[in-house]
Amino acid sequence: MTTIRAEWTKLRTVRATWWTVLAAVVLMAATAGQLAIYVANGNTNDDPSDDAGVVPLGSVLIDSLELVQYAVLALGLLMITSEFTTGTIRTTLQCTPSRGRVLLAKAAVAAAVTFVLGLLLGAVGALVASLVLGEWGAAPVAGTLRDVVALATYLALIGVLALGLGAVLRSAVLTLTVLLAVLMIVPLSLREPDITALHRIADAFPGEAGQHLLAGDGQPYPPAVGLLLLAGWAAVALLGGRAALRRRDA
C-alpha cells in the first residue's frame, strides 16, 4: 500500500496529469457534440440517405472514444516514461527495489485513475450528446450506464497496456507510436484484404477487442471475450515491462 500511495502522490502532484485530464474532458465534449450534430443535421436535412434516425447515446460515446482514448493513454505511459526521461526512476527503484512491486503499484494507480476518468468522460459525453441530439437521442438508463462502465473499463485496461509498453520502450513518443499501430493501424491493414483468416487475427488486437466489448454484440465473440482479450494484452505488457526493468539498468 505504501508503494501505491507513493505512486498516487507522484501522479496527482504533477501538473501534466491535470492538463491531460482537462484535455480528455474537453476532447470528449467536443467530439461527442460534433458527432451528435452530424446525426441531428442528417435527420433534418432534405437528403434521406443520411438519416440515422434515433440513436442511443452509447453509440456516440463509442465513436467519440476512437479519438479521446489517446489523451487518456498519455496518463498511463507518462507514469513510467517520464521517470526514465527525468531519471527519477532511479530514486523510485532505490526506495522500492522490487521491480515487480513498483510496476504493479503503477498499474493499480493507472487502472484506478483511468477508470474514474472514464466514468467522468462517459458522463460528460452522454450529457453533451443528449443535449445536442434532443429528440434524436435515446437514453435508456440501464443501457447508458452499461456503456459508460464498459467505456471506463476499456480505458483502464488500455491505460495499463500503455504503462507496460512504456516500461519496455522507455520513450513516450515510441510508446504512443506502437499503441497507435496496435490499436488502429495494424487491425485496419489486416482488414483491407478480404481474407477471413486475417480478419480473425485483427479481431484479437486490443482495439478490436475493445470495440466488441463496447458494442456489446456477439459477433465474432461476446463482450466477455473482448474483456478477457484486453486483460490479456494488458497482462502481457506488464510482464514484458517487468522483464525489461529487471534486465536493464534504470
TrEMBL record:
UniProt entry tagged with the keyword Ribosomal protein: no
UniProt KW keywords: Membrane, Transmembrane, Transmembrane helix
Family annotation (Pfam families): ABC2_membrane_4 (PF12730)
Record bears the keyword tRNA-binding: no
Membrane-spanning intervals of the chain: 21-40, 60-81, 102-128, 148-165, 172-190, 224-245
Name listed for the protein in its UniProt record: ABC-2 family transporter protein
Lineage per the UniProt record: Bacteria, Bacillati, Actinomycetota, Actinomycetes, Micromonosporales
